Amino acid sequence: MWKASPRCVSGAAVSKLLQCTLSDKPCNDYDFCEWLWTETKDTRMKALNTNFVQGVKDGMLHPTSFGAYIVQDAVYCQKAQESLSVAAKRDKMGPLKIFLEHESTDYKSYYEDLFDKWHIRDGKAIELGKECQEYVDIVADVASNDDAYYMLVALIPCGRLWPWLGQQLIAAKVYI
């Protein structure tokens, strides 16, 4: 069964997913998210030490770099919303489908708000950075070709890494 993990899947998401399982056998003592988190420590530390995060931390991030990140994030949210919608349409009715539909709606709100604030008319006209595009392509491939449960796994990097990075900035006494 899904276990609450404040650094992986929110309590609200867990409550929606209580009846969903990746296996026919209940797994009460194994937290897949914790295992993934532990196994990706090197990648997490690389993200923490990027010029972007360190620039935010030190108050030295150039405004153009910040703007470029926000524009890329807006387009990422648009593409994630599209992938969530595809995965939801492919899944049968149940808690997972409802969860994916809800997340798709949330991502649509995120990107529409960012598009409005940053005067973006067409996200397709914006070229993503190499790493972001690779991630978007993986998520889209999972949405189109794999069981919908794998969307949860595909989105863990975004859903868990960014809050953790924020916690690291707060711990360093950086208030953004």
UniProtKB/TrEMBL annotation:
Q: Where is the Thiaminase-2/PQQC domain?
A: 51-165
Gene3D superfamilies found in the cross-reference section: Heme oxygenase-like
Checking Pfam families in the record gives: TENA_THI-4
Q: InterPro entries of this UniProt entry?
A: Haem_Oase-like_multi-hlx (IPR016084), Thiaminase-2/PQQC (IPR004305), Thiamine_Salvage_TenA (IPR050967)
Q: What is the lineage of its organism?
A: Eukaryota, Metazoa, Spiralia, Lophotrochozoa, Mollusca
An individual GO BP term: thiamine metabolic process
Query: What is the protein name for this chain?
Result: Thiaminase-2/PQQC domain-containing protein
What GO CC terms are in its UniProt record?
A: cytosol
